[in-house]
Predict the 3D structure of the following.
Amino acid sequence: MLTLCQALNSGLRRAMEDDDKVLLMGEDVGRLGGVFRVTDGLQKDFGEARVVDTTLAESGIIGTAIGLALRGYRPVCEIQFDGFVYPAFNQIVSQLAKMRARTGGRTGLPVVVRIPVGGGIGAVEHHSESNEAYFAHTAGLRVVYCASPDDAHWMIRQAVAGDDPVIFYEPKRRYWVKGEVTTAGPPLPLDRARTVRQGTDVTLLTYGGTVATCVAAAEAAAQEGRDIEVIDLRSISPLDVATIEESVRRTGRAVVVHEAPTFAGFGAEVVAQVTSRCFYSLEAPVERVGGFNLPYPPAKVEEEYLPDLDRILDAVDRVLAA
């Protein structure tokens, strides 16, 4: 049994053992092992040339990683907290995402940008944001979101081994949750969704920190005779629309759940895909549950902001009542 944090560490270690061109970069990732200790012990074992403590300059971190990738390296960059990625936004959107198209497919940039994301840890401003919609909207990037130790281990290895730039989200409130990590190989391709719980009445479409919340909601609903399916999207760009479509066509009802504000959030794209592909199978309008269209609140009221069982079950009631 490993925590999600330990599973990421073991995945990074294996990636570095498998390819000496893999290196880690970020603020305090070396000697300290990262603020969440995801990279703990890696600098000691692989040296300061492969686990690099950088200055506090996110644009510089990504810019340097782009140059290294052009010379054949595979950098894995840590952005210390979700809200710290904005100084690097220009490098990611204007350079990292565009190089393959700019060179007519001749040059890829195998850079992984790790971002601890989301709320639930009682942090201050700019430490609990969910900004996946910005990057999912950017062509040229893969955007993935682990939710369990097993996925954390295998998805980071798959992301590092691939030839595309990857925004790799890690739900920080799940860092200390334990689970089994398989040894036989990756259970799924990086861009496939996972059916976490099978059901027949409603499909819950979710990812990241809200996967466990949706499973808990489904188990609570089961006590009232409602059979709810939970799908962890895992990859939000590209999106596994085939798995989504198969489930919603079967259940006839869907609720999309994520931490980010629902206004122009990624869930709106999921709703659009479901409505377009499953229109004649839907028994009710697709509902969304997420954060409110406000800056992330102070820690003492964040539980009022984050989707919880009551809000999810209210949405399930609405689609079943339609």
Summary: The first strand starts at residue 2 and ends at 3. The chain has a mean pLDDT of 97. The chain has twelve helices and 14 strands.
